[in-house]
Amino acid sequence: QVQLVESGGGLVQPGGSLRLSCAASGLTLEYNAIGWFRQAPGKKREGVSCISSGDGSTYYADSMEGRFTISRDNAKNTVYLQMNSLKPEDTAVYYCAAEILCMPYGLGYGEFVYWGQGTQVTVSS
Fold first, then answer.
1. How much is the pLDDT for 65?
2. How far apart are the first and last CA of the chain?
3. Fewer beta carbons below 10 Å: N end or C end of the chain?
4. Which of 81, 83, 76, 88 is closest to 36 using CA atoms?
5. DSSP symbols for 11-59
6. Dihedral sign computed on CA atoms, order 44, 52, 4, 67
7. Alpha carbon distance 100, 40 (integer Å)
8. What confidence tens digit (pLDDT) does each residue in 80-116 have?
């Protein structure tokens, strides 16, 4: 059974940093494309970043480019999202997902996607 568990969310002031973790069981993250999505109240879920299987190529949505960094620790079977220079508009529930499509120009998912339970990120003074 595949399980993804996110952690690391919380309340941070604008300009601050957080590191989200996505730990997996029942799935080897190294062999799967993994993505981070987020959903703010009243808005659609949007793709944030992804890391491909194998060579670990990465993608970032335009508004996250230069502020967020996705990485993978194969030994811990965990994917991280380092978020710096956070803005109030980054406030959302962040979800990691496996079995996604991670491409140089974007990320997406189909019917076989696995989701974590989500972790709340709130950026506020």
1. 87
2. 40
3. N
4. 81
5. EE-TT--EEEEEEEESS-GGGS-EEEEEE-TTS--EEEEEE-STT--EE
6. negative
7. 21
8. 999 999 999 999 999 999 999 999 889 999 899 999 9
